[in-house]
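Continuing the batch. This is chain 6 of the set; chains 1 through 5 are on the previous pages. Same settings as before, nothing changed between runs. Recording input and output for traceability.
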Amino acid sequence: MNRIEKFVYDQVKSNPRVKQSIRNLYQSFFDFLPNKKNFSINEIDFKEGFFYGFHDISPFSKDDSKLLANKLTIPLRMPELGDVLEVGYFNLENGLSDFVKIDATHAWNYHKGCRLQWLKENIVIYNDADGDELISSIYDINSNIKKSLSFPIDSVSPCGEYIATFSYGRLEKLMPGYGYRTFDDDNYIQEKLPENTGLFLGNTNENTKELLVSLSQLSKIGELNPEDLNCHHYVTHSLFSPDGKYISFLHRWVDINYTSKRHTRLLTINLESRECYISPTNDMVSHYVWNDQNQIIAYSRIGDKDSHVLFEEPTLQKYRRIAYPALNSDGHQSFISSNSFVTDTYPDKFRMANLYKVNCITNEVTLLAKLNSYKKFQSLPPDRHWCCDLHPRMNPKGDTVCFDSVHTGKRAICVMKI
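Output for chain 6:
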């Protein structure tokens, strides 16, 4: 972003509706210009009609032989009750040619799919709906045996025994487009700071879950302004640390009518002591991931500057900025190695989305791809949330990135050597 774009963005970024409206209006002035050419450092293999979803979990199997994916069954519109998303995988020895369907789900969105992810070797887990109940399904690819948990998931622990979750019904009400059409019983949406919902820890072996920290408890951790307590609070974006000892998550609060700014802070919770730690961020955290050193990279505000920030230990108190000001745009990160990651940008005024590689030691930023993001895929407030961010996701070996893109004119899952 240039200085003027950055200034305007900083003024409106905490109000999603206003931000989207101004962005859409600004980009429309450039629609009369010819589309720019797509660029990538290597050939992109893509499969139209498929996508994966968010950047914080990898669709690659540990041996890099399979790639999880979702297949669309509806045209470009918001999913309705009864609309299914097919889930399955590609055998990567054949590229993206043959999709192996394993099931279909009724609980999905365009941003995060159905949270399809690897639970253990050759076993996957994903969200679904059984009538009017949100559940998650566990599917063994080898035996074709399927079983269900009585609650939805967000992320899985490294050992595959535990899951982190929250109320998707509350999330959909307060952050539309990220929940599902089916609501759950844990939403307590009439309450601003309920004691009975928040961040949950589930057990995949016992089909049980417990409340780790409630929204009421979160409001008492750290210092919140009196007006903050008059907002509706929720939890989202939860992840386990690589050693399985912590869960990180975003604690957010908004006006129930979604007309005021959105407030966010990043926290971690020690699963043994149940102690919570708060990042020293200033009211804004957007996207983050862990690396294999138990460190977190997060696009966040420290002081009055927004940047990618590396928190060097799970208590979040030691940190440093990465590649600032060369990289001054929000993005979705995925680690290549302990000291490097990929990240994307939202479409610029020419509707071009960038994919970068970032070195955490040298702060070097390398352009990997620059791709068209066509107007028909832009989300429109208040209720059309169908945009396609790149959401880059690295493979275990660190030589291939998977991302979602519409640069061909259709939503597609893509892989590219880096």
